[in-house]
């Protein structure tokens, strides 16, 4: 695999948006769980 010029950052923000019934709660839960299992610190703010 080629070097893609990856760089380490201190923090990032990822926002998911969708309407009721689109599976947004499930998407957020799966993303949060996977991120935590990989050792990342996470915070969630439901709106």
Summarize, please.
The protein has one helix at residues 24-37.
Q: Care to describe what's here?
A:
It is elongated and about 40 Å long. The protein contains one helix and no strands. By secondary structure, the protein is mainly alpha-helical.
Q: Topology of this structure?
A:
Layout: H1 24-37
SS strand fraction: under 5%
Molecular shape: elongated
| Multimeric state | single chain
Low-pLDDT sequence parts:
none
Q: Give the N-to-C terminal Cα separation.
A: 39 Å
Give the SSE order as H and E letters: H
Give a quick set of tags describing it.
47 residues, 30% helix, 1 helix, mainly alpha
